[in-house]
Amino acid sequence: MRISLLLAAAAFLTTTACQRTVAVTTPTDAPQTGLAGSVSTPAPTSANTIEPAPNNAPAFDTQKRPKWLEDRIQAHLKEKKANPPVHIYSYQYNGATVYFETSPCCDQYTNLYAADGQVLCHPDGGLTGRGDGKCADFSKNRTEEKLVWQDPR
């Protein structure tokens, strides 16, 4: 009895589902001409009203860079372009301004500098990706991120 009900339900569903057709049209579709080679792509209905304008403002903070940081940036520009490009960010960390320099690739350490240019630690990178372990809380406790510089090449 149960099998015959299931078969009847399946037969009903397949016959009614197969008889339904769905036609999808949009108001911008051109009328179909019936020709085999006709293009059914609609023509644009309006012109673009937004013209993108380039943003000429610097993407990074150029204010109050310490001399040692400017020297570090110049050293990067003298080297071959890294992939990915080097970025330098400033943060507040443990109540002080610090500078975080990304590594150019792979298993290299990143650098965290104090405001006077001394290396504090290597927050990440290396073979484990966890840095040298001297500032393991850096990613959790850093605040006020500002992009100071990125290699423009």
TrEMBL record:
Residue ranges constituting the DUF6970 domain according to the UniProt record: 76-151
Top-level taxon of the source organism: Bacteria
Compositional bias segments (type: Polar residues): 38-49
Pfam families assigned to the protein according to its UniProt record, in alphabetical order: DUF6970 (PF22311)
Signal peptide region: 1-19
InterPro entries hit by this protein: DUF6970
Keyword Oxidoreductase found: no
Entry keywords, A to Z: Signal
Keyword Lipid biosynthesis: no
Membrane-crossing segments per the record: none
PROSITE patterns according to UniProt: PROKAR_LIPOPROTEIN (PS51257)
Protein name: DUF6970 domain-containing protein
Organism the protein comes from: Hymenobacter endophyticus
